[in-house]
Design a protein that fits this description.
The chain is an alpha/beta fold and about 220 residues long. The protein has a single domain (about 1-225), classed as Lambda Exonuclease, Chain A. The chain has six helices and eight strands, in the order αβαααββββαββαβ. The chain has helices at about 1-5, 15-20, 30-35, 45-70, 125-145, 175-195; strands at about 10-15, 85-90, 95-100, 105-110, 115-120, 155-160, 170-175, 220-225. The protein has a five-stranded mixed beta sheet with strand order 4-5-6-7-8, with helices on both faces. The N and C termini lie far apart (about 55 Å).
């Protein structure tokens, strides 16, 4: 185990942070840990869904700009700049580093806002459920952007659900309680176990600590009309 981890770099990405904090419906914390250290293989990505999402991102960005009358920059276009990945070395030993990273779909710097676009392959009608699925990613992005050198305080995120005939845009403000008291303690625990290289009985899971994976605080967001 120690020999395998020599020189290891673990990247906890925004797109998978729900797994890290135990809020992913399809991959548990312990399974994601096993994937990261190489004990298991991750399920293959559905290229059809991924391709659809990438193709629709620019339309989602355009919708945000029209709705807000503000410029979205660093959104992956030739004119407005490539997408920016924000990275931070979070925790390390002499031979292992745990890194945090995110690549938002854009920024509205004059509003201190992040932009995130989702283009579901299947039509969504329960928007509250859909938003809650992505809250870990959204809050994690806000946390990293606020800590970065970018002149953007990440006071909130414009979250666009782009789908033909029923596109929705929401504003989700920074949630300090969720980030500091719910999300970060789980990231911290997960990172420390990555540095150790293995799990033990004290590692929190939904099986041994179900209540700790339920956020009881207030979650605020509003639709942009």
């Amino acid at each position: 185990m120690e020999q395998r981890n020599l020189g290891s770099l673990y990247n906890l990405r925004a797109s998978q942070i729900a797994r890290v904090i135990g809020n992913d419906d399809y991959c548990s914390r312990q399974n994601h840990f096993a994937i990261l250290i190489g004990d298991k293989e991750d399920k293959p990505v559905n290229e059809m869904f991924t391709s659809h999402g990438h193709e629709c991102e620019r339309y989602g960005v355009a919708h945000v700009m029209i709705a807000t009358q503000l410029l979205v920059v660093d959104c992956g276009s030739d004119l407005l700049g490539p997408q920016v990945t924000i990275k931070e070395d979070y925790m390390s030993t002499d031979d292992t580093i745990v890194q945090l990273s995110c690549t938002p779909d854009g920024f509205i710097d004059e509003r201190n806002a992040v932009v995130e676009i989702k283009s579901p392959y299947f039509k969504q009608e329960d928007f509250d459920k859909y938003i809650n699925r992505y809250l870990p990613q959204i809050y994690f992005q806000q946390y990293l952007v606020r800590r970065s050198s970018r002149k953007n305080n990440a006071d909130g995120t414009y979250f666009c659900i782009y789908q033909m005939g029923n596109t929705k845009l929401y504003y989700i403000p920074y949630n300090e309680d969720y980030i500091n008291n719910y999300m970060l303690p789980k990231i911290d625990e997960f990172a420390r176990y990555l540095l150790k290289g293995s799990l033990d009985k004290d590692f929190k899971t939904k099986r041994n600590s179900k209540e700790s994976f339920i956020y009881n605080g207030e979650v605020k967001y509003s639709e942009c009309i």
